[in-house]
Amino acid sequence: SEMCIRDRSITGISKYLRNNNLSYAPVLLTWDMTSRCNFACPFCYIRDNSITREVRFEETIQVIDGLVEAGLFEVYLSGGECLLLDDFLKIYKYIKKKGVYVTIFTNASVISDEILSCWKDFPPSSVEITLYNDDYSSKPFCNILKLQKMGIHVLPKFTMTKTTFKYYKKVKQ
Length: 173
Known about the structure:
The chain is of the alpha/beta class. It has a five-stranded parallel beta sheet with strand order 1-2-3-4-5, with helices on both faces. Helix 2 runs parallel beside helix 3.
């Protein structure tokens, strides 16, 4: 019988493989790479930006290799702000070179030319950008346009709170 995958997103394909008990059981990793963030949103679950010790690239190689061997299919890289991690690009490229699909969760305010260059060569499956205001000239909004122009799938998101509600209508536009 012919397989029918309705949701052809990476996550949809992963769910399909998992639910249909095929011989390959894909592994999904959600990795909060750091608790540091350059924002201090009052509604965020991260309360302490004072962390002094973070994971280094060399410490992750064996773990990543083991996960790939176990069937790692998809990774969500998040934080805090994962792009603040000193070894983010080394870790990211290593995962991509292993053939794993990667989604980045970011506030997009620290996307640099170096990151854009890396993503041009090793594109993420998706970049999910959470917006917190309606300043269209801000780095997050500008980076959404840059990423879209590069052909990278971008999913803008908005956290609705009492303090951000006033921006919702303009952000939605």
